[in-house]
Automatic annotation (TrEMBL):
Pfam families: Inv-AAD. PROSITE patterns: CYT_DCMP_DEAMINASES_2 (PS51747). GO terms for biological process: nucleobase-containing compound metabolic process. GO terms for molecular function: catalytic activity. This is Cytidine deaminase-like protein. Residues 21-151 form the CMP/dCMP-type deaminase domain. InterPro entries: CMP_dCMP_dom, Cytidine_deaminase-like.
Amino acid sequence: MCLHTLADALEAGATQGITSNNHLAYMQLALAQAKQSPPKDSNFRVGAVLVDAESNTILTTGYTLELPGNTHAEQVCLIKYAKAHDVPEERVSEVLPTNTVIYTTIEPCAKRLSGKLPCVERILRTRKVDGEGGIRKVYVGMKEPEKFIKEGELKSGRMKLEDAGIECVAVPGLESEIMDVATTGHQ
Ligand code: HJL
Ligand code: ZN
C-alpha cells in the first residue's frame, strides 16, 4: 500500500480503502501522522487515528503537538472530533459512535510530567455515564519507552485501560520505526 496516496486520500475526504481487519494498515496511517509531529526533546512524536469500527470509517487523526497547548496525539483526535460536533472535549462521549476504536503508535499515557490529564483518563471519559459507547478498544503500536516515566513507578497506560474494561490490542511489526520517529530530536 502506498501511504502517501492513502494519506492524501484521507486528506481529501475520499474513501479510505482499508479493510476493517487490517490493523497494520491503520497503524501505518497512525505512524504517518506521527511523522508530521515537530521534534521536541520533552516528549515523544506519536500519531493516532480514531475509527468507527462499526462502519469502518476514519473519524479523525492526530499527532503530538498538532494543536496548541502541549497536546498528545490521542488528545488531538478527541479535541478535533469534539470540535467538529460542537462539543468540548470533556463531552465527546455524547457524540462518539458506540463502537469507536483508536490506533496509537505508542500506548496512551498514564501520567504526564507536565501534570496535564493523561490520555488514559481522556479515553475513559469517552464512555457514556452507563459505561457504554465511546472508545471500546485501543490498538497499540508499542509500549511507552522508558524515558519520562520509569517502568514500575506506576501502572502502564495499557494496564490502566484494561483494568477499566477497555481492551488493548498490540499491533506488531512497526516497533523500531515507531521508536525512531518517536525519539527524533531527542538528545
Ligand atoms: C502518547 C503522545 C505523547 C506521549 N504519549 N501516548 N502520546 N507525547 O502524543 C508520553 C510522555 C509524556 C511526558 C511529558 N508521551 O507531554 O510520557 O509534557 O510526553 O505532558 O511525560 O509530559 P507532557
Ligand atoms: Zn497522552
